[in-house]
């Protein structure tokens, strides 16, 4: 939704109404994932996609009918071999697509909450008599629209659990709701403005992370070295962690390889709920940390939270390859995976 907002607002500014089609469920493999959207204006304009091309014509006609006064609806399409051949995709399966008219107040509320960085969910009934009924729900309740208390409670729980995957949930027999969370971007805190940190910051930004570089040495932590970082802090990392907001969507990477920086930083990091803590260094280096960290009140059990040696085994040697190894492990942890080769993984690719 967010990526299509400029187009939606442009069409509204021209006096057109807008319908949206959303992939709400996928069975097997499909060309587009859950959450993929296509928008159509009352003037016949179209943007986005729900299938890469193979069912767009039918969906377009259904969306025009909605714009002409028809009710919201959920459509089911089987992606056949003939259809996927047309768009050059080697996959198949079934998709459910919700078609509805966009509500300006709801969209404006969602945009405002996302801009403020507030965890927010868009909840829409997708079956039963109230199909199409939507609400924007924040951590403290409904922001816009109307929704049953059980839907609000579920949405709030998903936000509290930092669930970022959109999904259909059964609320009652014959009644399902599609809830799509919109969470603030994950934060990558990079301790140590060393060479590896430069490509790591760039990769993280490309992947949607907010990046913070921390180093007490100004010659390492500066805007010239890190033009793409969201924030650069020239201070001791353990002191920085005391005032930064560290939660379950925060990922900490220690790259300094200097005990006088690493040890107090690790001691501080292990007191936080950070989703990931990684420290550069060999197995020998990390083993020595186990021995020294006792003086900081850190136990061996606590140190097992630390990913060290850091990164996935990609065999890289250059700073860029090392950075790729690190960000790959961070993304794997974020998605609840171990970073194994897809060849060795059973089940649908990308399934949670």
Task: Give an overview in words.
With 352 residues, this protein is of the alpha/beta class. It has three domains: 2-101, no CATH class; 104-182, no CATH class; 187-334, NAD(P)-binding Rossmann-like Domain (Rossmann fold). The protein is 31% helix and 25% strand. It has eleven helices and 16 strands. The chain has helices spanning 5-13, 56-67, 81-86, 104-115, 149-160, 197-206, 237-243, 259-269, 283-292, 300-303, 319-334, and strands spanning 18-28, 37-41, 46-48, 73-79, 93-101, 120-125, 134-138, 141-145, 167-172, 175-182, 187-191, 210-214, 231-233, 250-254, 276-279, 306-307. The strands form three sheets. The chain has a six-stranded parallel beta sheet with strand order 13-12-11-14-15-16, with helices on both faces. The protein has a five-stranded antiparallel beta sheet with strand order 3-2-1-5-4. A five-stranded antiparallel beta sheet has the order 8-7-6-10-9, with helices on both faces. Helix 6 packs across helix 11 (319-334). The radius of gyration is 23 Å and the shape is elongated. The two termini are 22 Å apart. The model is unreliable at 85-90 (pLDDT under 50).
